[in-house]
Amino acid sequence: MKIIQNYIDGRFVRGSREFPDINPADGSVVAQVSEADRSQVSEAVGAATSALRGDWGRLSIPKRAAILQKIADGIEGRFQEFVAAEVADTGKPVSLASKIDIPRGAANFRAFAELIKTAPLESYRTELADGSAALNYAVRKPLGVVGIITPWNLPLLLLTWKVAPALACGNCVVVKPSEETPGSATLLAEVMQEAGVPRGVFNLVHGFGPDSAGEFLTSHAGVDGFTFTGESSTGAAIMRTVAANVKPVSFELGGKNAAIVFADCDLEETIVGLTDAVFMNTGQVCLCAERIYVERPLFERFVLALKKKAEGLRLGWPTDETTTTGPLISKNHREKVLGYYGLARNEGATIVTGGGAPHFGDGRDTGFYVEPTILTGLAESARCVREEIFGPVCHIAPFDTEEEAIAKANDTKYGLAASVWTTQLKRGHRVAEQLRAGITWVNCWFLRDLRTPFGGMGLSGIGREGGMHSLNFYSELNNICVKL
Ligand code: NAD
Fold first, then answer.
1. What's the topology of domain 3-253+458-483?
2. Where does ligand 1 bind, in terms of residues with CB under 6 Å?
């Protein structure tokens, strides 16, 4: 059986224990994963610290950028291997991994290779009372050793979203991918080696969160800053741990995202967009819409149209090109989502479609599939309307006025993403501006320009990454003041 190893100081190393990497499509074991123990995590931090003090931190920006481009070439050169690893670990359809996850993995390196070359820095001339002046200018230094902890839903995409800008700024990293999805991160370590990334610059440790590699990393005083994507409650736990060493954090956390659909929308375009927004990656995207508010005259038609789309999704083997919807990530997560389906019934929901688990009569029955599900009729106070479910499910409710829709959309402790669907230009802008979310789409969903700020309000995160926002998090700015 294949052993997925840690990558520390430029070498692949076994850990002290192993745990299985499960294929969610049928529950089979894909590989054994070597779990890094506390001393190995410490070794990884030490290797990163040495590399930082060595040549990497002083490498010129064009040379660092060239290495980032080579990493992107390496991902593209082994595209099919990355796709296969991602599909086996996550159960996502091969079409999705090929179209989004792996291309974005490479694109993240290309985007930050370009951006770091042109990143502006502030300078101010200060006129002094005695007629002289001072010139202030900032220089960008690496933050240091960066701890990167990522989730399982978009493994390579979200990991490279942090690794690329961190390396672009001259940092060295210790990465802890999700225990559910160790495959593509390990392939990335091979690509790093092939691209000539010096040893110690990129380190990879496998394991779990509490009392495992995740916590060993966040409690290590030698790490200079942490960037994390995952659940809000995990963010809170990490924050408590890193507080002991007073380290900066950048957090991209959960959401309970709303979509507002006005009766004047282009219905066909809206249904296509919201089918993706609810069901893409089996609803396991932090940006997915779990609450849809539809203007009352359109409500019945909208519900029927989305139901038709949901029932047309093809739940299949992830490796089948025609599959649109794979399983959930794990047995535990399936139990959680099915628990919410049951709770929705108890809370008085109408199950428009789905609400259970499919039966295939083949190996997928030991996998972690659930039915795409649409709910209506719940009170805004229902747990299914308030809590992040992270499955292929949404609740649809009618509204009568613009103000009511905005108030309902904003009535959440989260604030990650929202979308507005209307053909009235002014209304689109007006409503978008009033929504409390890190990103609001008008007549689209999931479109991203990698230079734009990305992050969430409230329980959805701390700080912004993307473009210059990433470069600023992964840098220390040193202001130099020269008396002229
Ligand atoms: P999770 O919080 O369970 O785990 C994420 C990572 O944190 C894993 O690598 C895990 O091992 C590690 N971890 C867990 N406990 C830890 C601890 N105490 N100390 C250190 N590390 C610890 O999240 P998940 O289930 O993998 O991912 C799903 C969640 O991620 C959802 O809530 C989703 O909304 C969120 N998410 C947010 C974004 C965003 O950009 N805002 C993107 C994707 C996913």
1. Aldehyde Dehydrogenase; Chain A, domain 1 (3.40.605)
2. 149-153, 158, 176, 178-179, 208-210, 214-215, 218, 229-231, 234, 237-238, 252-255, 286, 388, 390, 416, 456, 461
Looking at domain 257-442, which CATH architecture does it have?
Answer: 3-Layer(aba) Sandwich (3.40)
pLDDT value of residue 16: 87
Active site residue 35: no
* Tokens coding 152: 């399982």
CB 249 within 8 A of CB 239: yes
- For residue 484, CA distances in Å to 121, 403, 453, 477, 479 come to 20, 56, 37, 22, 15
Domain chopping of the chain, boundaries: 3-253+458-483, 257-442
Rg (CA), the chain: 23
Catalytic site residue from 286, 288, 384, 394: 286
What pLDDT sits at residue 58? 84
Residue 138's pLDDT is what? 97
- 10-residue averages of pLDDT along the chain (484 residues): 97 96 98 98 98 90 97 98 98 98 98 96 96 97 98 98 98 98 98 97 98 98 98 97 96 98 98 98 98 98 98 98 98 98 98 98 98 98 98 98 98 98 98 98 97 97 97 97 97
CB 431 within 8 A of CB 338: no
Class of residue 73 by CB neighbours under 10 A (exposed 0-12, middle 13-18, buried 19+):
middle
Separation in Å, CA 316 to CA 365, 368, 415: 11, 12, 33
Q: Which atom of ligand 1 is nearest to the CA of 151?
A: 26
Q: Which residue puts its alpha carbon closest to atom 9 of ligand 1?
A: 178
